[in-house]
Amino acid sequence: MLFHTWQFWGFFAIVLLAFYSVPFRVGRIVLLIASYAFYMAWNWRFAALILGSTVLDYVLGIAIAPAPPRRRRILVVLSVVANLGVLGFFKYYNFFSANVAAALGLPANSFLLNLVLPVGISFYTFKSMSYTVDVYRGHLPAVRNFLDYAIFVVFFPELVAGPIVRADVFFPQYLNWKKPDAPQVQEAIALILNGLIKKMVFADRFALISDEYFAHLQAHPGPAAAWSGVLAFTAQIFFDFSGYTDIARGCALLLGIRFPLNFRRPYLAPNITEFWRRWHMSLSEWLRDYLYIPLGGNRHGRFNTYRNLMLTMLLGGLWHGASWNFVVWGGIHGMLLSVHRLLARAFSRTRFETFLNRAVFVPAKVGLTFFTVVISWVFFRAQSFADAGQILSAMFTTGPLLEGTLWTKGTVALAVSSTILAVAEEKTMFLTRLSTTRFRVRLPLYASQMLCLELFAVTGVQIPFIYFQF
């Protein structure tokens, strides 16, 4: 069930009705049944896999808490190895087996298995694994009620594409659950409508262009086509994923759970470090707390700091998919983060830093950061190194400025309007303030959002959310 289909909203309406028709202690069972039903609608066979992961980390969490130090380490390592083992088998077996076959001079399919990637496995694995690590670190107590822990793992608004809501965020709200008040309901409705517009009006419109370009490179030669295709994907992936996150946050809030912010206008970031503080924030924080810092963070000298940044981003790239393209994408960002840290350290507290921090240079810094992010998206979206090389070559060859562009006046209008709205929100936070205004003020806004969906949403083709594949 996709968030932008009538099937999902019929399902969600039934869940809300059932959940609020009974006391919360019974409503928890409704949430668990609904979450498993939602997941099994994709592929019922993998319900056993997520249940197995839930049982394992629930048992280990209880065992870790009172255990002596040596046994605690063994138990947490068992959790990490088991979780990463299952994730690695389903997500990376075919990738690594193909590379082994190539190294041995054998056909690429010599060791391949007919594996189906369980939807959402990257998200719920990271979430469940971080729980046992946090119990091991003493950051939170072990959850004793299996029903409560099972709901945490499979809570359906975030189950298949995040955000990665960690136990220390989820359980304080869940165990002290309160029915959302009127302003929260109002905020949730605004989030859902904003998310639907991002997905159906913006992301899907740009997807028509990016999918056409990346699927038929030979049919669209020249720099104009290349830039239009890559920029379309740049817009698509932001609106697609942030749209999903807004809908997930809105649905969760209607059920009394507030999810953390996952995007904060990342394309307006003035440097690459700030970009990663604004883009897929729950993953960035997860990688920082459970990978970068355990590797040593910035505690053991410059070389180790840059090494840890590269390793974190390389593995973060591989998390997105079993392809060397994703590894290169992560490596590019690791390199950019290292270079930015190096330059920031070199010019810290100098006149040159003061000079560059003037407001007049902000647009240039935002533009340079955006440019590097756009280039990196080529490797993220291209099907192969060969395709990525062809696209980059086309982007930086000379040719007519607009001849061959795939953008229409409508997509240009979408890009311009979204940029204006993003800059206005960055400066004034007017959209955030609107979500807290009185209902009679918001009612015309709701109506205009519904009208926008009716008039401008892409119809006739169902485009899945990009991050469902991860």
Which features does this protein show?
470 residues, mainly alpha, 19 helices, 71% helix, globular
Task: Tell me the layout of helices and strands.
Layout: H1 6-19, H2 24-43, H3 47-64, H4 69-103, H5 121-137, H6 146-154, H7 167-175, H8 182-215, H9 223-254, H10 272-278, H11 281-295, H12 302-320, H13 324-346, H14 351-356, H15 362-381, H16 385-395, H17 409-428, H18 430-434, H19 439-456
Helix pairs in contact: 2-6, 3-4, 3-5, 3-6, 4-5, 8-9, 8-19, 9-15, 9-16, 11-12, 12-13, 13-15, 15-16
- pLDDT averaged residue by residue: 90
Sheet having the most strands: none
User: What overall geometry do the principal axes of the alpha carbons give?
Assistant: globular
State the helix count: 19
Number of domains in the coordinates?
Answer: 2
Question: How does the helix and strand content classify structurally?
Answer: mainly alpha
Report the strand count: 0
Distance between the termini: 16 Å
The amount of beta strand, in percent, is under 5%
Helix content: over 70%
The sequence of SSEs as H and E is HHHHHHHHHHHHHHHHHHH
Oligomer: single chain
Q: Rounded to an integer, what's the Rg over CA atoms?
A: 23 Å
Regions with little confidence, pLDDT below 50 for 5+ residues: none
Written overview of the protein:
This protein is 71% helix and 0% strand. It is mainly α. α8 packs antiparallel against α9 and α11 packs across α12. The chain has two domains: 159 residues, no CATH class; 287 residues, no CATH class. The two termini are 16 Å apart. The model has no long low-confidence stretch (mean pLDDT 90).
